[in-house]
From TrEMBL:
<comment type="similarity">
    <text>Belongs to the DHNA family.</text>
</comment>
<dbReference type="GO" id="GO:0046656">
    <property type="term" value="P:folic acid biosynthetic process"/>
</dbReference>
<keyword id="KW-0456">Lyase</keyword>
<keyword id="KW-0289">Folate biosynthesis</keyword>
<dbReference type="Pfam" id="PF02152">
    <property type="entry name" value="FolB"/>
</dbReference>
<dbReference type="GO" id="GO:0004150">
    <property type="term" value="F:dihydroneopterin aldolase activity"/>
</dbReference>
<comment type="function">
    <text>Catalyzes the conversion of 7,8-dihydroneopterin to 6-hydroxymethyl-7,8-dihydropterin.</text>
</comment>
<dbReference type="GO" id="GO:0005737">
    <property type="term" value="C:cytoplasm"/>
</dbReference>
<dbReference type="InterPro" id="IPR043133">
    <property type="entry name" value="GTP-CH-I_C/QueF"/>
</dbReference>
<feature type="domain" description="Dihydroneopterin aldolase/epimerase">
    <location>
        <begin position="5"/>
        <end position="118"/>
    </location>
</feature>
<dbReference type="InterPro" id="IPR006156">
    <property type="entry name" value="Dihydroneopterin_aldolase"/>
</dbReference>
<comment type="pathway">
    <text>Cofactor biosynthesis; tetrahydrofolate biosynthesis; 2-amino-4-hydroxy-6-hydroxymethyl-7,8-dihydropteridine diphosphate from 7,8-dihydroneopterin triphosphate: step 3/4.</text>
</comment>
<dbReference type="GO" id="GO:0046654">
    <property type="term" value="P:tetrahydrofolate biosynthetic process"/>
</dbReference>
<dbReference type="InterPro" id="IPR006157">
    <property type="entry name" value="FolB_dom"/>
</dbReference>
<protein>
    <recommendedName>
        <fullName>7,8-dihydroneopterin aldolase</fullName>
        <ecNumber>4.1.2.25</ecNumber>
    </recommendedName>
</protein>
Length: 123
């Protein structure tokens, strides 16, 4: 599966974090998602019905990011990856990167985040 589709810079206001202020006020999270599949079978025929739409992946990401609260951005990334793999059978692997540019750190920084890569279990 060498075909990769990606979404970059998806911004969502959500309430993740361990501190009460983060949970109450929320903050901006930025997501980058890559997913791997075999696009050859549908791309050659220009068949949208067989494609995994990046809009559908976007909706899945936003539903997970806003539908449940997580203390850890690692758990948030895992939940998004699991939802994408569960909803789209054609997706063989997914990479989810979560950026938390307003993390409560006493210092000057541009970004903190996590990146996970998950593969569909073969079986």
């Amino acid at each position: 599966m060498n075909d990769r589709i990606f979404l970059r810079g998806v911004q969502v206001h959500a309430h993740h974090g361990v501190f009460a202020e983060e949970q109450a006020l929320g903050q901006r999270f930025v997501f980058d998602v890559d997913y791997w599949l075999d696009a050859h079978s549908y791309a050659g025929a220009d068949d949208i019905a067989r494609a995994v739409s990046y809009n559908d992946v976007y909706v899945t990401l936003v539903e997970v990011a806003t539908g449940q609260r997580f203390d850890l951005i690692e758990a948030l990334a895992e939940a998004i990856a699991a939802a994408i793999l569960a909803r789209f059978a054609a997706v063989r692997s997914v990479r989810v990167e979560v950026h938390k540019p307003s993390a409560p750190i006493a210092g000057i920084f541009s970004d903190v985040g996590v990146e996970i890569l998950r593969h569909r279990a073969e079986g």
